[in-house]
Amino acid sequence: MVAPWHYLSGRVRNGPPAFEAAHGENVWKYASKHPELSELISGAMACDARVSVPAIVNGCAGFFDGINIIVDVGGAKGTALGVLVKAFPWIKDKGMVIIVEAVIREDEDSKFKYVGLMLDMIMLAHTNNGKERTEEEWGSILTKAGFSRFTVKPIHAVQSVIIAYPC
């Protein structure tokens, strides 16, 4: 996982993606051939969920009122879903998508600001086009995806809860 960092300066100068330069293919193809990396990525995401989802439960419990069905998109180990279902036992596993992602707050003096920027550097080193986004960038993505409006609810974690409303 360190090798891509040696190629980061080339990536910043419009070179090939750092992970591909180090390993010859993107992180997802590489992980599919290297179960130890796939397990490391899954474990990291589960660790992240163990921190961020309790913050969602504590800071956004009202969002789940009236919700009966939920889907954990990308939940390799089901950690996030397990925490949510335990906190809100009436929820079943299907139907609703919750966006929980880092939102870079450039103008805010948040204790998580530099953590978000560090995550952005990790995305730059380990993915082809991945990056953390500002609220304005999230708005652009959601508008292009057909949502009429959205709100961002910061929680006590580097991530925020993004609620998008369909047209």
Give an overview of the whole structure.
There is one protein chain. The chain has seven helices and six strands. It has 167 residues and is of the alpha/beta class. 46% of the residues lie in helices and 17% in strands. The longest helix is centred in the first third of the chain and has 26 residues, at 35-60. A four-stranded mixed beta sheet has the order 4-3-6-5, sandwiched between helices. Strands 1-2 form a two-stranded parallel sheet. Helix 6 (113-126) links the parallel strand 3 (99-104) and strand 4. Helix 3 packs across helix 4 (35-60). The protein has one domain (3-166): Rossmann fold (3-Layer(aba) Sandwich). The mean pLDDT is 83. One of its GO terms (biological process) is methylation. It holds the Pfam family Methyltransf_2. Residues 91-148 form the O-methyltransferase C-terminal domain. It comes from Thalictrum thalictroides. This is Acetylserotonin o-methyltransferase.
Secondary structure: elements and pairs:
Elements: H1 8-12, H2 18-23, H3 27-33, H4 35-60, E1 69-70, H5 79-87, E2 92-93, E3 99-104, H6 113-126, E4 133-134, H7 135-144, E5 147-154, E6 159-166
Parallel strand pairs: 1-2, 3-4
Antiparallel strand pairs: 3-6, 5-6
Q: What key attributes describe this structure?
A:
single chain, 167 residues, alpha/beta, Rossmann fold, two-stranded parallel sheet, 46% helix
Task: Sum this structure up briefly.
The protein has helices at residues 8-12, 18-23, 27-33, 35-60, 79-87, 113-126, 135-144, and strands spanning 69-70, 92-93, 99-104, 133-134, 147-154, 159-166. With 167 residues, the chain is of the alpha/beta class.
